[in-house]
Amino acid sequence: QVQLVESGGGLVQAGGSLRVSCAASGSILSINVMGWVRQPPGKQRELVGLVTNDGTTNYADSVKGRFTISRDNAKNTTHLQMNSLKTEDTAVYYCYAVVKRTWYTSVQTFWGRGTQVTVSS
After folding, report:
1. Exposed, middle or buried, 37 (CB in 10 Å: 0-12/13-18/19+)?
2. 60 with 35: CB under 8 angstroms?
3. What pLDDT score does 80 carry?
4. DSSP conformation letters of 29-63
């Protein structure tokens, strides 16, 4: 199996910064995409951004210019650096990974359990 564990969430004031990380472990041959989604209180999950295995990134319009996703392929980790945080960024942040476990299996998507990020005014 594959496990994803997020870390680094917490409470921060508006305008501040926070970095959350996600480490994937288990039976992994390669990871095509690592990304982040978030679920604000009472709302549906929304994509924050993603990074491919060649380093290409893509972000939701709401976080462009404020959030940066990076990736360490050797460690199967991804980091989400969040700057200029707003109260509307308050959410549970989940990481995901599109994983190829063996040469013979199709890619599968695995999810972390989430980490709470709260931005106070």
Report:
1. buried
2. no
3. 98
4. SEEEEEEEEEE-TTS--EEEEEEETT--EEE-TTT
Enumerate long-range contacts of 55-62, CB under 8 Å, 24 or more apart.
62/88
The set of residues, in sequence order, having a beta carbon less than 8 Å from that of 10 and lying 6+ positions away, is 18, 116, 117, 118
Least Cα distance to 62 among 89, 94, 40 occurs for 89
Tens digit of each residue's pLDDT (9 = 90 or more) over 36-94: 999 999 999 999 999 999 999 999 999 999 999 999 999 999 999 999 999 999 999 99
CB 22 within 8 A of CB 77: yes
**Predicted pLDDT at 28:** 95
Structure tokens at 111: 């999810």
- Across the chain, the runs of DSSP E, i.e. the strands, are 2-7, 10-13, 18-26, 30-39, 46-52, 57-59, 67-72, 77-82, 91-100, 108-111, 115-120
Q: What's the pLDDT score for residue 6?
A: 95
Q: What angle do CA 43, 63, 68 make, to 5 degrees?
A: 125
